[in-house]
Specification:
Pfam families: Cren7. This protein is mainly β. The protein has no helices and five strands. It has strands spanning 8-11, 17-20, 24-28, 36-42, 49-54. The strands form two sheets. It has a three-stranded antiparallel sheet with strand order 3-4-5, with no helix packed on it. Strands 1-2 form a two-stranded antiparallel ribbon. The structure holds a DNA duplex.
Amino acid sequence: MSSGKRAVKVKTPNGKEMELVPEKAWALAPKGRKGVKIGLFKDPETGKYFRHKLPDDYPI
DNA sequence: ATAATTGT
DNA sequence: ACAATTAT
């Protein structure tokens, strides 16, 4: 559950725009506020993990 | 234990 | 400040 499904256009920490599937995806929102969705990605170029906002309609 | 991720 | 998550 809560794992990534579809690919997302993300900006890697090195500034490359690419489509990646998040290893994990979840909602990050305070109580009573809208918040955002966050994905955990691994840059295939460097192996570095990073987090990135997901589209609001991304399936969690 | 902390950083980092967004928007209110 | 607050929310969840997890690699570091």
